[in-house]
């Protein structure tokens, strides 16, 4: 079983773009809690910094920024093949590396 990670891009105009990626293996409840503790303000992260894709609305505008939202219920066991080239453990490791060190790129 693999894990789909679902997260959200919301621009300054409150337009929303759902994002998702599948990592290899299961993300345990303990690992979800670790990831949630790594988020900025308990909600925000920069997907590219942890190896996840970032989908927005075409061209960059004044309403855009680098932050995406991740909720605790954004992790789902799924039978789909991984599309990230990353395991669940590697994902947790990348979040731990980014914790308190998110690099804004806008």
Number of strands: 5
Instruction: Quote the beta fraction.
Output: 15-25%
Total number of helical segments? 2
Helix vs. strand class: alpha+beta
Characterise this structure:
With 106 residues, the protein is an alpha+beta fold. It is built from two helices and five strands, in the order ββαβββα. It has helices at residues 29-38, 88-98, and strands spanning 2-10, 16-23, 44-45, 68-69, 75-78. α1 packs parallel to α2 (88-98). The N and C termini lie far apart (36 Å). The mean pLDDT is 96.
Short description:
This protein has helices at 29-38, 88-98, and strands at residues 2-10, 16-23, 44-45, 68-69, 75-78. It is of the alpha+beta class and 106 residues long.
List the helices and strands and how they pair.
Blueprint: E1 2-10, E2 16-23, H1 29-38, E3 44-45, E4 68-69, E5 75-78, H2 88-98
List keywords for this structure.
20% helix; five-stranded antiparallel beta sheet; alpha+beta; 2 helices; 106 residues
